[in-house]
Amino acid sequence: MGWGLRSLRPGPRRPAERPRSTRPAHKRGRACLRVPLAGADWPRRASLPAERGGAWGGAPMEVAAMGESRVVSRAEALELGPGWRHACHALLYAPCPGRLFGRVPLRHAVLMQMRFDGQLGFPGGFVDPRDSSLEAGLSRELREELGPGAAPLSLAEGDHLGARFAETPQRLVAHFYAKRLSLEQLRALEEGATKAADHGLEVLGLVRVPLYTLRDGVGGLPTFLSNSFVASARQQLLQALGALGLVPEAELRRADAVSRKGL
Ligand SMILES: O=c1[nH]cnc2c1ncn2[C@H]1C[C@H](O)[C@@H](COP(=O)(O)OP(=O)(O)O)O1
């Protein structure tokens, strides 16, 4: 089955499955749900650029206290049929040669956003039945949340990094994309984001993720990871940083462990 409107249309939901809404009034009816994602890493893809080669290797992170979910390819996700909702979010990043305090390499600029609910997440959102494809839905959401500067980004199937689906609390597939920009493009996005329709409403501001760990072993990425993240965003961040080779995996594991122990 190819992409079709039917595959995006949510099926009937039992009232017991309906979560309490924290949505702004204008988006009520479009459910905001936590997606419990855990377990194995996203499949590696031969088509990934060389810099995406880092393998996650050992035990998966965030297994504890997570519900059941499964990895699914983009094509398989589209075969799930009616009754499944799809959400697409994207990690936008750029090489960043600068050094903090003149000595700590910044490595890359990676964008996340502070959401209306006080949690951190990636730009993106639910795909609507009227969107012609997952990527069209993602592009629409990026324009709403990042402003007109997002229009030329044109995320494509090839930028799909992975997806997971879960049956509870609602049948939802969480797709994740990554796109490498130039630092100039990323800066232009940051500057233009205050013109976005959602700015000051659903999106309170863009933030860059610190990809370094400071000398005290806590400042930087470990502290950032101790923030509150929406749904699977924290896991998506860690997996993408590893898969894209933006942070060495040993450092990622350490930052994850430190942030969990309590700072
Ligand atoms: O960054 C994210 N990573 C994974 N899942 C996310 C992220 N942000 C939100 N979500 C979840 C929460 C909801 O179940 C859906 C859609 O949420 P949202 O992006 O707020 O949707 P709209 O912009 O209102 O369309 O994904």
Number of domains: 1
Structural category is alpha+beta
User: Radius of gyration over alpha carbons?
Assistant: 18 Å
CATH-defined fold name: Nucleoside Triphosphate Pyrophosphohydrolase
Please identify which CATH superfamily we are dealing with: Nucleoside Triphosphate Pyrophosphohydrolase
- Oligomeric status of the shown chains? single chain
Strand % is: 15-25%
Order of helices and strands: HEHEEEEEEHEEHEHHH
Q: Give me the CATH architecture, please.
A: Alpha-Beta Complex
Biggest beta sheet attributes: 8 strands, mixed
Characterize the structure shown:
It is built from 7 helices and 10 strands. The protein is α+β, with helices and mostly antiparallel strands and 263 residues long. It has one domain (61-260): Nucleoside Triphosphate Pyrophosphohydrolase. Strands 1, 2, 5, 6, 7, 8, 9 and 10 form an 8-stranded mixed β-sheet that branches. A hairpin with a 3-residue loop joins strand 3 and strand 4. The longest helix is centred in the middle third of the chain and has 13 residues, at 134-146. The radius of gyration is 18 Å and the shape is globular. The N and C termini lie far apart (49 Å). Mean pLDDT is 81; it is low at 1-40 and 42-66. Bound molecules: the ligand O=c1[nH]cnc2c1ncn2[C@H]1C[C@H](O)[C@@H](COP(=O)(O)OP(=O)(O)O)O1.
Itemize the secondary structure elements and their pairings.
Layout (H helix, E strand, L loop, with lengths): L4 H4 L61 E2 L2 H5 L6 E11 L3 E2 L3 E2 L2 E8 L4 E2 L2 E3 L7 H13 L13 E7 L5 E9 L2 H10 L10 E6 L12 H5 L7 H11 L5 H13 L2
Parallel strand pairs: 2-9
Antiparallel strand pairs: 1-8, 2-5, 2-7, 3-4, 5-6, 5-10, 8-9
